[in-house]
Amino acid sequence: MGSFHNEKPDTGTAGTMKPLDPEEFRRQGHLVIDFLADYYKNVEKYPVRSQVEPGYLKKRLPDSAPYDAEPIEEILRDVQNDIVPGLTHWQSPNYYAYFPSSGSIAGFLGEMLSTGFNVVGFNWMSSPAATELESIVMDWLGKMLKLPSEFLFSGGGGGVLQGTTCEAILCTIVAARDQMLRKIGRENINKLVVYGSDQTHSALQKAAQIAGIHPSNFRAVSTSRATAFGLTAEALRAQIVSDVESGMVPLFLCATIGTTSSTAVDPLMPLCAVAKEFGIWVHVDAAYAGSACICPEYRHFLDGVENADSFSFNAHKWFLTTLDCCCLWVKNPSALVKALSTYPEYLRNKASDTKQVIDYKDWQITLSRRFRSLKLWLVIRNYGVANLRKFLRSHIKMAKNFQGLIGMDKRFEVVVPRNFATVCFRISPIEMGGNQQLNVSKEEATNNVNAKLLETINESGKIYMTHAVIGGVYVMRFAVGASLTENRHVNLAWKIVQEHANALLNTSSS
Asked: What keywords are annotated for this sequence in UniProt (predicted)?
């Protein structure tokens, strides 16, 4: 790999560079596709979690950019030798960490087309197909989820593709904020209160901060094991009443279908009833679990969404549509537009002036936007609803299998009910009988042992899981969702867990 140290005098006589030469694009494109195809063929052989140390890459790469052009063949060799070792392989069949970021041929090719056209679709005029395909696909997907017609363009609402849930929540908080401040005056922004549960993703708190909500006005309402860590209407009401009595103004509730820690489900029907009573905007975050709700047997988790104001899920998590692709629907698009719209002279055009087209720049934080709908359209068309349901059900079946394996080993327990394809489990406190550490409670000792077990498993590189602490209990999260995972991988994962547990428990008891 070259660097500026090899710099030569620039005579200005070099041939003209052709960065989009069709034939060279074809040649290099084939090489990259072949490289990726081989990567997926062999991905199972790599340690799932990267084994490198911090700063590893700086030791391998030059400290300045190359002066002369380098061939793609050499660059791909460096990708294999220097970049691949530093990857945590999210698409490995042995990846069970966080939540999935599922990939697919259709998703990759849709991304390729989107990147290839490289349009900047901020308004209808900038590329009509980008805007119109997005509105059509969002209605398709809304119907697949059986969302109420009020969320669809055909029913007066509408959908937009954001990058992530963080953006979707921020956009809806800003819309709710401005809607409320028009009623009570902008000088009262410090009275606005945002609600979630103690299981709600940190994206809510971050979005509230960015939107100007005072940090002390963020409420993480407590949940408990008794309700499987779902937010109760009673707890929400008690907090709201307390805030109202203190002169505060309730603004926004984020209810979650499938929390990050344990995939807990907040009951939408009673929560929306409380929120409606106090004029609160309700956003439903189904980032992970929303995908499963295209299956009729899981649609009941969305019962009550008809009373919410907005709804989102990440197609890039469990819907075969590569990062980034967050689907957001709102009942009242004008609330978004009023809060997020700007219309400078240089963007004025006849189509926008007629108000007969959608300008998606007014539905999001940024001006520029990618042609994300193209890859979502390819995924839906290339696989169809039936195959997408089959894909989701296969992962849920594998998770049930893993849960069953846990149940056959009395040393382990499933800590919270499994709702989808994520199992939260641990070594049981019963195993701590003779292994309890001095001056440490049995629960703390159990947490410590489980944390040590998870780290030794992940260090092996054979599988990768992450953890959560739920109600003070440290759990290992086994999230099935990688596109290449089969039941044999799940069975192997359980054997690896048992082997490491055997070694750890035997060591601590000796």
From this structure: Decarboxylase, Lyase, Pyridoxal phosphate, Transferase
Instruction: Say if residue 228 is exposed, middle or buried (CB neighbours under 10 Å; 0-12, 13-18, 19+).
Output: middle
Q: What is the pLDDT of residues 375-425, one digit of tens each?
A: 999 999 999 999 999 999 999 999 999 999 999 999 999 999 999 999 999
Of the candidates 101, 150, 145, 138, the residue with the CA atom closest to the CA atom of residue 301: 145
Task: Determine the Cα–Cα distance for residues 261 and 390; give it in Å rounded to an integer.
Answer: 25
Average pLDDT, integer, range 361-366? 90
What is the identity of the amino acid at 277? E
- Strand segments (E) across 106-238: 158-162, 192-197, 218-221
Which bin fits 312, alpha (ψ -120 to 50), beta or left (φ > 0)?
beta
Compute the distance between CA of residue 39 and CA of residue 110 in angstroms, rounded to an integer. 19
Residue 441 has what pLDDT? 85
Q: What is the DSSP string of 330-375?
A: ES-HHHHHHHH----GGG--HHHHTT-S--GGGGSSSS----THHH
Could you tell me the two tokens for 278? 């106090």
Q: What is the CA radius of gyration of the chain?
A: 25
Pull the structure tokens for residue 281: 């905007």
Q: How many residues make up the chain in this entry?
A: 510
